[in-house]
Specification:
The protein is of the alpha+beta class. The protein has 2 domains: about 70 residues, GMP Synthetase, Chain A, domain 3; about 70 residues, SH3 type barrels, CATH 2.30.30.180. The chain is built from 4 helices and 8 strands. The strands form 2 sheets. It has a 5-stranded antiparallel beta sheet. Helix 2 links the parallel strand 2 and strand 3. Helix 1 crosses helix 2. The protein is globular and about 55 Å long.
């Protein structure tokens, strides 16, 4: 079984060459493996046709290199509206939106945080974190490498912006 790093070293350039940005790659499962590939176009969108096209492209690469010796399923998808935040630029792009973050090490006694993403300052992510029991908030400066996982929280504001972006995209196609 190839390591996730080896698989990503094959898949990431293939995703980019096909005109997409790799958002996340995960190899899951014990008995039957699933290779999850989350990607998006440069405009942040990803539709069913994009997923099918990218799936065929990745399959060709993986079939040729054969890094996964066991049986597996390839799952190519959009990151969705309440997407994971996996790269530093995601924090600049989604400034003003609510996110849940899990840290590798506790800060102020907390490893799980929820707050509004303020943006990026060099290598640090700025977040206005909601206090415990919803009381107040404080601005935290989190080194990007200390964030284990982060994901946008589905809010009315996020849905509204996503719909506007989709509407603009569909108008550009006509």
């Amino acid at each position: 079984m190839g390591s996730p790093e080896l698989i990503e070293s094959l898949v990431a350039p293939a995703v980019e060459a096909a005109g997409y940005r790799l958002v996340r790659l995960r190899l899951l499962g014990a008995k039957r493996k699933t290779l999850q590939v989350m990607a998006e176009r440069a405009d942040g969108q990803m539709d069913v046709e994009d997923c099918a096209k990218l799936s065929r492209h990745i399959s060709e690469i993986l079939d040729a290199a054969d890094p996964i010796t066991d049986d597996y399923d390839l799952e190519v998808s959009s990151p969705g509206i309440d997407r994971p935040l996996t790269a530093p630029e995601d924090y600049a792009r989604f400034a003003g939106h609510m996110a849940r973050l899990e840290l590798f090490s506790a800060i102020n006694g907390r490893k799980r945080l929820k707050g509004v993403v303020i943006g990026l300052d060099k290598e640090d992510v700025l977040v206005d974190v909601t206090g415990r029991e919803g009381k107040g908030s404080e601005r935290l400066r989190l080194p990007f490498h200390e964030i284990a996982e982060a994901k946008l929280v589905l809010t009315d504001k996020l849905i509204e912006e996503s719909l506007k972006a989709r509407d603009l995209q569909s108008k550009d196609k006509t």
